[in-house]
Amino acid sequence: MTLVSRTVVSMLAAVALTFGAAVGASAAPAEPAATKPSVSFTLVSSKRQAGQSFKVRYSTKNVRSGYKVELQRTFGTSGTFKKIASLKANTSTTATSTTPGMGKYRVRVVVKSKSGTVVAKTASKTLYSFEWVSLAELTNRKTSTVDINGSLFRYAFHTYYTDYTRVVALDRSTCRRVSLQAVNTDHEGVTGALQVVQERRDPVTVALPQNVIQSTATSLNLGAAVQINVKTGDPIGSYADAYVNGKLEVLERRRRALTADGYPAPADRGRRPSITSCAGTSPDVPGRGLRSP
Hints:
By secondary structure, the chain is mainly beta. It has helices at 3-27, 135-139; strands at 38-43, 47-49, 53-61, 68-75, 80-87, 92-98, 103-112, 118-121, 125-134, 144-148, 151-155, 157-159, 165-170, 175-184, 192-198, 204-208, 214-219, 226-231, 242-250. Strands 2, 4, 5, 7, 8, 9, 12, 14, 17 and 19 form a ten-stranded mixed beta sheet that branches. A four-stranded antiparallel beta sheet has the order 13-18-15-16, with no helix packed on it. A hairpin with a 4-residue loop joins strand 4 (68-75) and strand 5 (80-87). The radius of gyration is 35 Å and the shape is rod-shaped. The chain starts with a helix and ends in a 43-residue tail after the last strand.
């Protein structure tokens, strides 16, 4: 082979190698970096009764095969997050879970890898859980009954005062609703009244005609002071009795112990009174503090 021929062959080989490398590069491009999972959610119903279901709306993207999506809430005083429901990956939908016992909880959605490591999570949101608690239990009073037109009415509070008497005073209340029943047994036909006075709302007053059981249900402002009062309306003050019973939907059950007459129980006497969440009460004496005009 002549020198010229060898040179031509070498040039053709070089061209072939260059073309092959170019073709290979276009046929197998570099793999892009994996996209990280993302998750978002909204707590649709943040204030629920214990035992009811609450709903969340969530969205997840780029969740790999084998990864898990979980709905979590806090447990215990340490506030440790634990799974309460398994959710779907790579979708936008809703899910429900059962509201735990009364209190405040944090809820969030997380994505976990195959090893269980949290690789994506949302900010947590607060879930409020309420329960109905009787007026007698909250104030540590004993209940009794009175005959009203041949039927027994069970009550937790009784007074014979003409002017408003404080049934219960709630300081920075964690109650959101109150349901009350009351009756006035004025033998002279004078009308009494049941009253719910709030720090941030107009008072609610229900007339109590003689021997007629009246009921009322009122929403309360969380964190505001509330007071429930009752009066017989009897100008003489010796021929009438007013009786009250009811229940409150509460977030917490903290309170100090009281005897049936409304005074601190013997074990609590001499101690500094605690700030109560939903049942700081006074003795059965004419009410002071929050009053309507």
